[in-house]
């Protein structure tokens, strides 16, 4: 039975699973980690799983006829099965390993897109999209004469189904949207969007980099055609990601890259491709990383996903109230009921990069910049933003420290401003 995300003091026990939290970033300054949208911390079970592979059975997979290779293959393919169950995939062969969300979406664009899209076809996106779910489609559009259309977001950063419906047409072939904005935390209502796209005969590509770690996405219940996400944003290692695709779509797609492992037979004249999912996985795969992701899925599967979402929503509600007390902080995006654990901020009189540096003096780790989402920042009318992002191990104390550090930064910069002569 899944357990809920514990509350204090039990939350302290969960936090103890993450050794990075137990440190001072400089003498007397303890870490407050609020950069989870960039990458999450890793719990001991994940760290130990990767260490065990490196120390005990660091062999290549699939073709080795010896004990270490067989053990590595079993752990590697077991991780794929865990991921398939975690997202509700009907078949394990529908799970393709990639280096991350970016590579997964590029694979869709380069393989499915080049094969099935033609001049005049349309792809629907939104201004919430990360560059990973924009640039591959831009490249394809230039190459094939495909048209990109954009669903408008509301002033508070929400993407309403009606906005998507307004840009759908008889030429729409792909609807590619994020499950959750990495800048604003906006949770996108995928169910009606998927239904509308399918009614038009279009496929749906979901960027789940932020969505999968924070909101359960069951592809058996939500019939998306492709889902891409990254291991390192859900307690797993870097360098490993997942492309889920419906079998019939993957079967119809040619490989995007050539090399070993993705072939059955090769002659001087040509090659016969391997079965799913291996025809998309050339070369030596990310073995340790996949095993680590399997351990991360085990860890997350023991928690109640609805409780994780509720915990993050409570943190966002607290953060909104707490930062309102500070003053001079504009919180970007929708109200907590419409967002995940991401807090985009514009602090009056403080450049986001300066803010991040000043917060670091207090041990508070946040992200500053455009977060690989330049069109969204153009829509917001801001050159950059600061972003604090929460995960299952964060507490209200973390946001108290954030608020105190922001207040201190504003005082510091205000005191340094030159004063007009009397």
Automatic annotation (TrEMBL):
<dbReference type="InterPro" id="IPR015422">
    <property type="entry name" value="PyrdxlP-dep_Trfase_small"/>
</dbReference>
<keyword id="KW-0808">Transferase</keyword>
<dbReference type="GO" id="GO:0031071">
    <property type="term" value="F:cysteine desulfurase activity"/>
</dbReference>
<dbReference type="InterPro" id="IPR000192">
    <property type="entry name" value="Aminotrans_V_dom"/>
</dbReference>
<dbReference type="InterPro" id="IPR020578">
    <property type="entry name" value="Aminotrans_V_PyrdxlP_BS"/>
</dbReference>
<comment type="similarity">
    <text>Belongs to the class-V pyridoxal-phosphate-dependent aminotransferase family. Csd subfamily.</text>
</comment>
<dbReference type="InterPro" id="IPR015424">
    <property type="entry name" value="PyrdxlP-dep_Trfase"/>
</dbReference>
<dbReference type="InterPro" id="IPR015421">
    <property type="entry name" value="PyrdxlP-dep_Trfase_major"/>
</dbReference>
<dbReference type="GO" id="GO:0030170">
    <property type="term" value="F:pyridoxal phosphate binding"/>
</dbReference>
<protein>
    <recommendedName>
        <fullName>Cysteine desulfurase</fullName>
        <ecNumber>2.8.1.7</ecNumber>
    </recommendedName>
</protein>
<feature type="domain" description="Aminotransferase class V">
    <location>
        <begin position="32"/>
        <end position="402"/>
    </location>
</feature>
<comment type="function">
    <text>Catalyzes the removal of elemental sulfur and selenium atoms from L-cysteine, L-cystine, L-selenocysteine, and L-selenocystine to produce L-alanine.</text>
</comment>
<dbReference type="Pfam" id="PF00266">
    <property type="entry name" value="Aminotran_5"/>
</dbReference>
<dbReference type="GO" id="GO:0006534">
    <property type="term" value="P:cysteine metabolic process"/>
</dbReference>
<keyword id="KW-0663">Pyridoxal phosphate</keyword>
<dbReference type="InterPro" id="IPR010970">
    <property type="entry name" value="Cys_dSase_SufS"/>
</dbReference>
């Amino acid at each position: 039975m899944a357990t809920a995300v514990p509350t204090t003091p039990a939350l302290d026990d969960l936090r103890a699973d993450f050794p990075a939290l137990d440190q001072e970033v400089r003498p007397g300054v303890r870490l407050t980690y609020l950069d989870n949208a960039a990458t999450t911390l890793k719990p001991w079970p994940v760290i130990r799983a990767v260490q065990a592979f490196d120390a005990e059975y660091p062999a290549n997979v699939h073709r080795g006829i010896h004990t270490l290779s067989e053990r590595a293959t079993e752990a590697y393919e077991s991780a794929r099965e865990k991921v398939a169950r975690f997202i509700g995939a009907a078949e394990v062969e529908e799970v393709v390993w990639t280096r991350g969300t970016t590579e997964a979406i590029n694979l869709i664009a380069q393989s499915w897109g080049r094969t099935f899209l033609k001049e005049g076809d349309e792809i629907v996106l939104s201004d919430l999209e990360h560059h990973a779910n924009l640039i591959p489609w831009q490249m394809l559009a230039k190459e094939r004469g495909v048209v990109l259309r954009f669903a408008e977001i509301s002033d508070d950063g929400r993407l309403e189904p009606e906005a998507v419906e307004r840009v759908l047409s008889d030429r729409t072939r792909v609807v590619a949207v994020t499950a959750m904005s990495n800048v604003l935390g906006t949770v996108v209502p995928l169910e009606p969007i998927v239904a509308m796209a399918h009614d038009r005969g279009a496929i749906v590509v979901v960027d789940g980099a932020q969505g999968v770690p924070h909101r359960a996405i069951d592809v058996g219940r939500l019939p998306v055609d492709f889902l891409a996400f990254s291991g390192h944003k859900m307690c797993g290692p870097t360098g490993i990601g997942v492309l889920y695709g419906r079998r019939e779509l993957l079967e119809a797609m040619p490989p995007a890259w050539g090399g070993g492992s993705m072939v059955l037979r090769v002659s001087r004249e040509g090659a016969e491709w391997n079965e799913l999912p291996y025809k998309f996985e050339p070369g030596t795969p990310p073995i340790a990383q996949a095993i680590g992701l399997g351990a991360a899925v085990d860890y997350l599967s023991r928690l109640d996903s609805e409780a994780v979402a509720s915990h993050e929503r409570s943190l966002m509600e607290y953060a909104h109230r707490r930062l309102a007390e500070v003053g001079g902080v504009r919180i970007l995006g929708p109200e907590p009921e419409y967002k995940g654990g991401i807090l985009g901020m514009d602090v009056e009189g403080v450049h986001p990069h300066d803010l991040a540096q000043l917060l670091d003096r207090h041990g508070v780790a946040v992200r500053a910049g455009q977060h690989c989402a330049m069109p969204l920042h153009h829509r917001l009318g801001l050159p950059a933003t600061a972003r604090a992002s929460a995960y299952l191990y964060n507490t209200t104390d973390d946001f108290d420290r954030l608020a105190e550090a922001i207040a201190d930064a504003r005082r510091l910069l205000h005191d340094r401003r030159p004063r007009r002569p009397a």
